[in-house]
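question for whoever is on the cluster today: can someone run the full assembly for these? two chains, 1019 residues total. i dont have access anymore since they changed the login thing
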Amino acid sequence: MNSRQPHDDFDKELRTHLELEAEEQSGAGISEREANDRARRAFGNATIVAEDVRAVWHSRWLEDAWQDVLYCLRMLRKNPGFTAVVVLTLALSIGANTAIFSVFDAVMLRSLPVADPANLVLLQWSARNSLQVHGVWSNGDCAQEMKGGNPTGCSLSKPFLEDVRAKTALFSGLAEFSEAGRFTLSGNGPATLALSQYVSGDYFQTLGIGAAIGRTIQPSDDTPSAPAVAVLNYGYWSTTLGADRGIVGKTIDLKGLPFTIVGVAEPRFTSLTPGHVYDIWVPLVQRHFLQSHWNPRMEDAGALWIVAIGRLKPGVSQAQAQSAVSVLFSNDAIHGDKPIAKGEDAPAISLVSAQKDLVGARGSLSTPIYLLMAAVGVVLLIACANVAGLMLARASARQKEIAVRLALGGGRARIMRQLFTESITLSLMGGILGIFLAFWSARALLAFLGSTSLRPLGISAEIDVRVLAFTIGVSLVTGTILGLAPALRSLRVDLTPALKEGAGKGSSAGHTGHARIGASSALVVGQFALTVVILVGAGLLVHTLTNLERIDPGFATQNILNFGVDPTLTGYKGARLAALYNDLQQRFATLPGVLSASYSEITLLSGSLATRGWILPGASHTEGHADYFTAGPHFFETMRIPFLSGRDFTPAEFLQAAQADEDSVPYLGPAIVNEAFVRVYFPNVNPLGQRFGFDTDEDAAKAASEDPKYRRNPGEVIIAVVRDSKYNDLRRDVKPTMYVPSDDGGTFELRTAGYPLAVVSAVREILRQAGGNMPIFDIETESKQIDDLLFQERLIARMSSLFAMLALLVACIGLYGLLSYELTQRTQEIGIRMALGAQAGDVLRNVIGHGILLATIGAALGASVSFAVTRYLRTLLFEVKLSDPFTLAGVIGLLLVVALLACYIPARRATRVDPIIALRYE
Amino acid sequence: MLILRTLLMGPTHGHAIAKHIQRTSDEMLQVEHGSLYPALHRLVKNGWISARWELSKERNREFKYYRLTALGRKQLIRERSKWAQMVAAIHRVLNGA
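^ ran it for u. tokens below:
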């Protein structure tokens, strides 16, 4: 209903009433005016009646709320500066929160992209002691702990899973999977590499995933005699294969073996484990053919390599299923053909939520994400304190308005609601703007997160319903907190002095004004304290990053190009494979712009590590332990790791190594060791010519008794000592390291004269000339590889500095706002001071002094709090003390300089106060 | 109830209702005239009375006339009997039946 119409209607009715009454009264012989007055008196408060009449027709609450909003928008338009500062402050902080939350949501909260994820359970084993297994292979699908008292994991053996299928009727399906690695995919243009996963025949059925085209893998595909089939990931199919619908039914080659593509999985199924995206799925049974030499055998109960997700049958409870599976596991583990545990180890299986415990990429991302959530939370807190301060200050400017409304009979509840409406409107405006800010910053953040990952993360941050709900929730809570302080204060307004303030100079008004400034000052101090905490945290993290970046890894990291070559399709093995690598290495070394070339099994600072235990001279069992590195020709020259004594491997030694590998005979091999190795194992002798790692007589006899073909391993002889250098990780200390000659191939390393990537096309040309359809992969410069290693450190350092700067900015806006406001209150005082002869400099000092005092108190408070808080960062730091004086001094210096700037502008304005005008204002 | 009772005598306007209630209650119920109007509007909203602007021939000006509806009549009867019951109950208590 139109709200104006009954209003006008009532006006008319009211007029009629008053006229009638006046007519009646004037009959008593009084003046017309007196009659009118009497009529009005008899009627009572017309305004309230009018409102009551309106209330009959409308929901009062809604109308009031709408009125409040309109009124508050009008007020905000009248104060564009205030509005802009508040909305911008809130937008920045709410936007930062939304961005981080949307990433948090995408990584931590989003549900598995499968049908009905609630009754999918992950089979996780646990035991009291390490299991006696042949090996455990895992890809970080779940939390795994192999060492220590209570090992746990989710890799299982194929025989056990077959038992679960055969002997229990708990699951309607069992989705088994295991990463296969990258296979050469050929037969469809130039060979490429496709990241593949083995899955059980009922994998897709169990998860409830259909096919976008064709069909998914079926149980009949997972039998030894079935034709080899493969299913493509929708993302891989649409990007790499150009969404070619004709691909279904075609045959491609994986590692040179033919596979028929039977379908493409539906688009929503990007990955099961968060961040583990596979290009292609093949049945588990195909592992026989694709990786025949691979260690864990299908039928080996001592090889744990398959992760399994079960879908509980309707009517089967999780507890019921768990006890049945656990009994089966315990029985197989203790009494099976290949016992992997003893009775006292209490091996057991827990059925845990697939949604929650299939961790994947979530595991490594959770630390930075929680840290950033905390940081943006603090930023929001600072922004709240800031805006609350500004609103308090403004509330005092509006004191008169509020007092007038109270005097005119406005309800206090109504006025409080007005104030809340204002603060909530402000924070919602901030929130809406924040969503836009968040929208692109979340994308940028995820792109950054994904940029260094070997494979696509398969995680996308979208501003979905949950994120919107989060933002609106944060805005509302913020608004309510913001409204609280001014609203409570408004209740305590003492009408008389407040009304007087405008007219005369009320000293009592000055008093309440002071209390208000006290509260605002406390808020500013609080903001600076929080800012210092977050700045110190960020400072420590940045310092950690620079420490790591400045580390001398022991080799020259600039101008190195790394790349892998996959010679699967050449069919070369053993000595011929080694010869191929040797040949390629020599060709690469002659390229213009390439200073030297080499290859190695693992590249330096890639995160990968191999270690080996061996026997020292004079010992009867494993005594020594060293990092183990397989190097190709000219490796030390290429990496610029200097020789301290001895010589590099000779071509003959490489040939010998390759030949020995092909014949699988142990031989006395050459080894180059680093300084740490000598320090630990051969401290007081000339290390050159020393032998280690051989079999003792006892070992040799024992081994020979088991296998007559066994030949004694003569170990290694040290031929050179090189300088220490970092192996897999910058944070890890240099350990004793042994280098042995490569017996097959690895990743190429080219030392270039200029920009490393400039030689890539020449490298491709050489590979093309060499033939064999060898795909090249993982082309990366060594410096980029090191950057990637520091990815998490960089992410945390950058983001936390960003948020710290944001916090500082917001705190300074708070300080600026407070001082500016104070100044308007003190205009008269400053005028009097200047009239009495105070110099501009005195006034400047006075105002700045006050601001700096607040900042200093805040900084001192924050510094002490930060000592307590930064303890939680300890694991993230590197060679930085928690009470790092450099960081603390830098932070406080920065804070004071910026605070000085924030003070200076209002202080300058103070000096321009014209005493005459200021006094006349009185 | 008082308003409904007043309107039982025929349609009339706000001022007249106020005056009538004042007079018939022997000036006992001295209410501000203003408080009458929200009550009137509430009754209109409940559908117990209706309102229309009509030209009064005798005074030659427009008044907003309120008149009882059928629903209002029923309501009056209901309230009256309730009131009577209550008066009777109070009477019994006071006289110690």
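summary bc i know u wont read the tokens: The mean pLDDT of chain B is 78. The domain at 2-94 of chain B is CATH 1.10.10.10 (Arc Repressor Mutant, subunit A).
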